[in-house]
Amino acid sequence: MKPFITGHEDLVHDVVYDFYGRHVATCSSDQHIKVFRLNRETNEWHLSDSWKAHDSSVVGLDWASPEYGRIIASVSYDKLINLWEEEPDAPECSGRRWTKLCTLNDATGPLFSVKFAPGHLGLKVGAIGNDGTLRVYEALEPSDLRSWTLTSEVSVLRTPPASHLQSDFCLTWCPSRFLPEKLLVCALDQALIYQKDKNGKMYVAAKLEGHEGLIRSVSWAPSIGRWYQLIATGCKDGKVRIFKLTETLQGKGGEGDDDDSMSVDQAEERSDSKGGAPELNVELVSESADHRGEVWSVSWNLTGTILSSAGDDGKVRLWKASYSNDFKCMSVINAQQRT
Fold first, then answer.
1. Cα 175 from Cα 267, distance rounded (Å)
2. What segment(s) does the record annotate as region Disordered (predicted)?
3. For a surface tag, which of 9, 110, 290, 309 has the fewest beta carbons within 10 Å of its beta carbon?
4. Per the domain annotation, does 308 fall within a domain?
C-alpha cells in the first residue's frame, strides 16, 4: 500500500474509480473535484484535471456507465447534484477538461450520497441527503445529457434528523440485469430495499435488520454465476454484515412450491402468472467485528466474490466465502505490511 497524494487542501470525502480502473476521482471539503489518470507503465497516478465543483464541501461522487460517455455526478452540502462531462480535447490540468452538464436542485438539505444506476436500466442517477428523501433522475433522451427528469421521490425518513454527518446516508443499486429494478437505501440505522410496483411507484420490498448504529457504507455484490444476491454493510457498531437476498413467490404453498427459493426465470414467470411480484427474503449470513472499531467502508470486487472493508483500525480486510459458504477474513492489509 502506497500513500496517494491528492493535493486537496482539506478533508477528502470520497474516492471513486471509473469502470476500467484507469481513472480515479476524488472530492473534498475544499470544494474541488480532482481526476487522476493511471500511467500503466510506471503504475503511478497523474493529475488529469482539478476544478471547483460546488460552493460547499463536495462529499459524494460516482461515474456513469461507460456506454453513456465519461460522466461524473457530484453532491455537496450546498444541496445540489452537479453532472459533469469530460472534454477529451481540452488540455490536462487546465481546469476546463470537465464541463458542467446540468444542476439538479430539488433537495431541501445537504446531499451525501449519489449513485448511477447500472447501464442496462438507462442513464439514471439516485441521491439522498439530510432531508431523508430518495430522488431518482433519468436522462430520457441520451442524446441530450443536459435534460434530466425527476422520476421518483420517496420519503425514506418520516422526520429528517436535526443534525447530520456525511456518512449517515448511502445507497446502492442492484447490479443484476436479470432482476427487476431495485436499490438499497441506508438512512441512519435503517437499510431498506426499494423496488417498483406495476405502476412504476417505489415501495419498500425488504429491510436489512440487526444494525445497532449508523450505517456508514453499503455495497451490492455483482451476482455473476449466482442465483441469489449478496449485500454488505459497514456500521458504526463495529460490524461488517453480509446479507443473502432471495426471491420467492408471494403466497406460495401450492404443489411445487416447497423450495425456499427459485431461479430468476421461474420467479418472473410465476410472478406474471399470478399478478404479483416475487417476495424478497433477507438472511444474515455473516457478521464480524474484526475491525474492533467503527467500519467506514465496504466494497465488493467485480465478480462479487471478495469483499473489502476498512475501519477505525486503519486496516483493509478482505473477505471470501469458504466451501461451506461461511465468510472468512482471508487477508489483512495495512500501510506497513500485508499479512
1. 18
2. 251-279
3. 9
4. no
In-domain check, residue 56: yes
Give how many domains the chain has, as a whole number.
1
Residue pair 13/61 in contact by the 8 Å Cβ criterion:
no
**In angstroms, rounded to a whole number, what is the distance separating the alpha carbons of residues 48 and 63?**
16
| DSSP 3-state of 66 | helix
Cβ contacts of residue 197 below 8 Å, gap of 6+? 203, 277
Report the alpha-carbon distance of residue 78 to residue 279 in Å, rounded. Answer: 38
Domain range enclosing 101: 7-167
- Reported as type and span, the H/E element at residue 272 is helix 264-274
109-160 pLDDT per residue, tens: 999 999 999 999 999 999 999 889 999 999 988 788 999 999 999 999 877 6
**94 lies in a domain?**
yes
Report the CATH number at residue 44. 2.130.10.10
Residues near 79 by beta carbon (within 8 Å), at least 6 away in sequence: 105, 107, 108, 109, 110, 111, 129
Give the three-class secondary structure for 295.
Answer: strand
In angstroms, what CA-CA distances link 335 with 43, 131, 267? 18, 37, 46
Burial class (CB in 10 A: 0-12, 13-18, 19+), 198: exposed
Say if residues 291 and 311 touch (Cβ distance below 8 Å).
yes
| Closest CA relative to residue 210, chosen from 258, 184, 243, 165 | 243
Report the run of H or E that residue 46 belongs to, with start and end: strand 44-52
For the chain, count helices (H), then strands (E).
1, 24
CB distance 229 to 220 below 8 Å:
yes
| Residue 111 counted as domain residue | yes
27 vs 35: CA distance, rounded Å: 9
Element (H, E) at 127: strand 124-129
Stretches where the chain sits below pLDDT 70 are 1, 160-167, 249-277, 335-339
pTM above 0.90, yes or no: no
- Name residue, grid cell 457504507: 217
**pLDDT, mean over the chain:** 87
